[in-house]
Amino acid sequence: MLVDYATRFAEAVPLRKIDTESVAEALVDIYSRLGVPEEVLSDQGTQFISDCMKEVCRLLGIKQKTTGLVERFNATLKTCLRRLCSEQPRQWHRYINPLLFAYREVPQESTHFVPFELLYGRIV
Question: Could you give the CA distance from residue 55 to residue 81 in angstroms, rounded to a whole number?
């Protein structure tokens, strides 16, 4: 999961494994679509603080820091997924994009703006 600090625009990619290589590939995919950030704020997960991830960030010119912002978004997304997937928990990956769309369309308490509008400059 990735949350833009300024706009609160969120991205998430379902992964079979949450290891450094899988996470790095997912991040490069996101950066290829949205652009490479100057700075990445992450949780203390081993996949984010590994030497491999540090090297990926160095090669892309990204500064790494840790924060609770992503953990709060993770908790929100997991709560929504549990409610939606109670009957078919193994199908959680099918709900990621609709949940992201809903999250991106709600004014955020911290910014009072809609993340999608801040990122793309238009209303959906």
Answer: 33
